[in-house]
Specification:
By secondary structure, the chain is mainly beta. The protein has one domain: predicted glycosyltransferase like domains (Thrombin, subunit H, Beta Barrel), CATH 2.40.10.220. It has 1 helix and 6 strands; from the N terminus they run ββββββα. It has a 6-stranded antiparallel barrel. The chain is globular and about 40 Å long. The termini are far apart. Mean pLDDT is about 85; it is low at about 1-5.
């Protein structure tokens, strides 16, 4: 579980792109959401289903840049309960996903977007 210490190795930028998460090798309903932030190392998402730490997931990311979606494999690194935006609202989970099989072309696309956002 996330302990509140920032150990990021990669620069991250707030970039709300669309992402589909599904549990690797287990037929579960895919989770559609948007990213809270992104880096070449992974993404942070808020989702309505708790996925256990260290679970492998398949990712499909639409960077909203008119190019094809990025597909990768990831590992759930941390999960914490996210406060509901409204009283009595549904439980949400702030979830960190590390890329473990990101292709070089995808890495360059994400790196370019993050650099552009941070340079503004």
């Amino acid at each position: 579980m996330w302990d509140g210490v920032d150990r990021r190795r990669f620069l991250r930028a707030e970039y709300p792109c669309l992402i589909k998460l599904s549990k690797k090798a287990i037929p579960i309903k895919a989770i559609l959401t948007h990213t809270e932030n992104i880096s070449v190392g992974g993404v942070r998402v808020i989702i309505g289903k708790k996925v256990e730490v260290m679970a492998e997931v398949d990712l499909e990311i639409d960077l909203m840049d008119t190019l094809t979606n990025i597909s990768s494999i990831g590992t759930i690194n941390w999960v914490k309960t996210a406060p509901s935006k409204r009283k009595g609202g549904p439980v949400r989970y702030d979830t960190g996903v590390q890329f473990i099989a990101l292709k070089d072309e995808a890495r360059r696309r994400i790196q370019k977007i993050v650099k552009h956002l941070l340079d503004r």
